[in-house]
Amino acid sequence: MKSNLDLIKECDSLPYPNDTEYDTFTASFYTLTHTSESYPIPITIGQIPEFVFNALAKVPISIKGELEVNRNTRTVSAFPQATEPERSAAVAATCDYWRKNKTFKVLEGWRNELYPVYGPKNELLFNVERSASVLFGTVSYGVHMVCYTRMTEEERVESGSRSDFKLWVPRRSRTKQTYGGMLDNTVAGGISSGEDPFESLVREADEEASLPEKLVRENTKAAGIVTYSYLRDPRAGGESGVVQPESQYIYDLELPKDVTPKIKDGEVECFYLWTCEQVMQSLAKGEFKPNCALVAIDFFIRHGILTEENENDLEEIKRRCHREIPLPGPHLTAK
């Protein structure tokens, strides 16, 4: 059985500078930087493993543009084009070149969806195909919502729960390329380039759980963000060991008893309505997708289910749910 801290470490799995594995990690990665007239001093925007760097170096200059590489500092400056549309076009052409040449397995899950890569002023530096974003180690953004339904005191006693609500927990479709068959948060999805976080949530709530738009807009409560850096493992599909820093906008929604999440787009196999204790049991068994486990644990902390009295590692868990990601983007100012 896994502890809550074990689960957090599975999601926030990139070594910290004081970890013994940190030096080994940095020796096998390049720092991806951006330089331009606006930023003559390079700014760090991502981290790429050696095998991605080697593949990037092999892409014809006519496709990607020039690379500036410093092997001593292990930095690479890529996509130097003057404007965002030109940079986005070069990134798209590079990813398409890899896809056509079957360079990376992760690109077999091509989404035709763009993720943004930001500069220090939260301006768009370039867009990148969603499935390829992990190859560059840039920050990606998403929304996660936990929906719950209140119980009467009689229902609570009958359920044996110490809490007066149950959580709606979906099981991911077993045919999904990533984390097939694992448990998820009620609503979750990536934020496309140019999309507002809350509008993304409203869209995902309809697509994944058939939740009425009016209900979502009028009753959803924002609950801040979580941030972590994930080293992908085989369950994610595609290449393992690439860095995936993420920032998730978190929301809670209490559902009336007559509203039930329903399958719509095939991303979900079924929904369970579970007590907090049932959710915790499934967490301990490792049944949740890693970042969904982190969001569920954050929910339990915020709602007073996990406290210093019953969780010895609470402070480290809270810190790792809000990891500092030293890359530019809205996560630096979001609350």
From TrEMBL:
Cross-referenced Pfam families: DUF4743 (PF15916), NUDIX (PF00293)
SUPFAM superfamilies named in the record: Nudix
GO MF annotations in UniProt: 8-oxo-dGDP phosphatase activity
Superkingdom per UniProt: Eukaryota
Transmembrane spans: none
Nudix hydrolase domain ranges (all copies): 140-296
InterPro entries: DUF4743, NUDIX_hydrolase-like_dom_sf, NUDIX_hydrolase_dom
Protein name: Nudix
Species annotation: Glarea lozoyensis (strain ATCC 20868 / MF5171)
